Amino acid sequence: MYLGELGANQIYKGQYFILSKTRPEVAHVIMDMWNQEKGHLETFEELLLKYNVKPTILKHLCETLGFMLGAGTALLGTKTAMACTEAVETVVGEHYNNQLRETMDLRGYSAEMDYLRKKIKEFRDDELEHLNTAVKDWNSRDSFAYNIITSIVKAGCIGAIWLCKRI
């Protein structure tokens, strides 16, 4: 989950970098979503510290690729940037649902696990809100590159999740 939030943070950073200059009317929407991602990332960074977990060795690669993906899709226009958002948030929403199911399978009760479940639900709902914003408010599906962008981005996200589970 940490790497996903790191990547999403960088994607929105890249989108904002471009769209704040080329399409200021959408910049505030990107900033709102980015601010939520910053909060998610901060929570996971706190949990990493609290439980003495080292972040993935893929951190810097994820930061670079995330920014490039965000900026690159934004250069192709608002609808293409939103198609990227739709694809990422679809996969991340599914990943959060899987994580939530996995935590439900764990035996026993703890306040810490309740806190984690609450955060997973909250963050998943934020991600699905971003997805709905991309589709309903910004017509992501009208992007000239919709099918190719969403296919590539979804495959990349699924691949990143798979890789992180093994490293």
UniProtKB/TrEMBL annotation:
This is Ubiquinone biosynthesis monooxygenase COQ7. SUPFAM superfamilies: Ferritin-like. It comes from Pneumocystis jirovecii (Human pneumocystis pneumonia agent). GO terms for cellular component: mitochondrial inner membrane. It holds the Pfam family COQ7. Pathway: Cofactor biosynthesis; ubiquinone biosynthesis. GO terms for biological process: ubiquinone biosynthetic process. GO terms for molecular function: 3-demethoxyubiquinol 3-hydroxylase activity; metal ion binding. Keywords: Iron, Membrane, Metal-binding, Monooxygenase, Oxidoreductase, Ubiquinone biosynthesis.
